[in-house]
Amino acid sequence: MSASKAIAIIGGGAAGFFAAISAAQLARQKGLSVDIRIFESSGQVLKKVRISGGGRCNVTHNCFDVKTFCQNYPRGSRELLSPMLRFQASDTVDWFKDAGVQLVAEADGRMFPDTNSSETIIDCFLNLIEKFHIKLMLKSPVKAIEVVSPGRLKLKMGDKESFTADAVLVATGSTPAGYRLAESLGHTITERAPSLFSFIINDLLISELTGLSFVDASLTLTFPALPGKKVFKQQGPVLITHWGLSGPAILKLSAWAAREMKLADYNGILTVNWMGVEKLNDVEKRLNVMKSENAKSYLKNVYPNILPKRFWLSLLDTCSIDHDKQWSRISKKEIATIAQALVASQLKITGQNRFKDEFVECGGVALPEIDFKTLASKVCPGLYFAGEILDVDGITGGFNFQNAWTTGWTAAQDMVLFNAKTTAT
Ligand SMILES: Cc1cc2nc3c(=O)[nH]c(=O)nc-3n(C[C@H](O)[C@H](O)[C@H](O)COP(=O)(O)OP(=O)(O)OC[C@H]3O[C@@H](n4cnc5c(N)ncnc54)[C@H](O)[C@@H]3O)c2cc1C
Question: Ligand 1 pocket check: which of 38, 39, 52, 62 to mutate, most ligand atoms within 8 Å of Cβ?
Answer without folding.
Answer: 52
